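Is this the right way to post structure tokens for a design question? Let me know if I should format differently. Anyway, here goes:
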């Protein structure tokens, strides 16, 4: 998996592929906040995620607050959760 696919279906956003420096701009350009009061971003099909994914999650969290949308992140890869913990972001990010 070299690319990132983003699929939105109602209040569910599914990510598939790799989230890294090469693909994060694609995710930033996606309009995931479409007339929803809540949103779940599912990472279960993400094969690789580096610190770019963590930055993406922080960006989406900030954007969700600006748009008054409750956001959660689910099925986060273990390495990304560990990175969030090392960065003291575990308590800030709404991880399901």
């Amino acid at each position: 998996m070299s690319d990132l696919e983003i699929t939105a279906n109602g209040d569910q956003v599914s990510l598939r592929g790799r989230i890294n420096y090469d693909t994060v701009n694609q995710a930033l350009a996606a309009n995931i906040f479409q007339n929803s009061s809540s949103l779940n971003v599912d990472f279960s099909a993400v094969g690789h995620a580096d610190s770019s994914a963590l930055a993406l999650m922080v960006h989406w969290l900030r954007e969700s607050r600006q748009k008054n949308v409750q956001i959660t992140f689910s099925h986060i890869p273990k390495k990304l959760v560990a990175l969030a913990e090392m960065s003291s972001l575990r308590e800030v990010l709404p991880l399901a």
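Format looks fine. Someone answered above. Worth noting: The first strand starts at residue 4 and ends at 9. The domain at 4-86 is CATH 3.30.750.24 (Transcription Regulator spoIIAA).
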